[in-house]
Specification:
about 200 residues
Length: about 200
């Protein structure tokens, strides 16, 4: 895995991560201090839509290009993108000085209601509670939602809770999960001028 940091003098937290395996070739650039622009091509239309929504609603600038073994299925493409996105989040946060650390969002989407809560603690943990009634949405397997967020969580070393409190439409459930995650991450990663160093009694995150 290759990591290129591009913060620059303006303080923007921007990272490019490249990861090549026999199953996927991924290049991803993330700017945590962006405007919500996205250029995404994973080869899976619905997954592209989810990542574009993540960028837009989290105010992250995101560029993703994935060449995956879609002739097998979508598993490696979705999971490996999660690994790379998690790595980009971790690297873009740096030493986490001044960030709020915690973020949460209760997000409605028509009949669906999703709760997302994040602690950028440096300790990976995923609590994922969501049920789908269809095997796919578009060309993305619904079971890959958990695999994606698991990969992001462990690669970013964050504590993430995602819970579907109500819902019936599989498209709405999936989209609400990604948008709620984006809003919670936006809040947790924002800097607060009241915080000196890191928000931890241990002195590190």
């Amino acid at each position: 895995m290759e990591i290129i940091r591009g913060g620059g003098p303006d303080g923007r937290r921007t990272v490019t991560v490249k990861r090549d395996t026999r199953e996927t070739r991924i290049t991803l650039t993330l700017n945590l201090d962006g405007a919500g622009t996205a250029s995404v091509d994973t080869g899976i239309g619905f997954f592209d839509h989810m990542l574009e929504g993540f960028a837009r609603h989290g105010f992250f600038d995101l560029e993703v290009k994935v060449d995956g073994d879609l002739k097998v299925d979508c598993h490696h493409t979705v999971e490996d993108t999660g690994i790379v996105l998690g790595c980009a989040i971790r690297e873009a946060l740096g030493d986490k000085a001044g960030i709020r650390r915690y973020g949460s969002r209760l997000l409605p989407m028509d009949e669906t209601l999703v709760l997302a809560a994040i602690d950028l603690s440096g300790r990976p943990y995923l609590n994922f509670q969501a049920e789908f009634t269809a095997p796919k949405v578009g060309e993305m397997d619904t079971e890959m939602a958990r695999e994606f967020f698991w990969a992001v969580t462990y690669s970013a070393a964050m504590n993430l809770h995602l819970k579907v409190l109500d819902g019936g439409n599989n498209h709405h459930i999936m989209e609400a999960l990604f948008k709620a995650f984006a809003k919670a991450l936006d809040e947790a990663s924002q800097k607060d001028e009241r915080i000196q160093g890191v928000l931890s009694t241990k002195g590190s995150l």
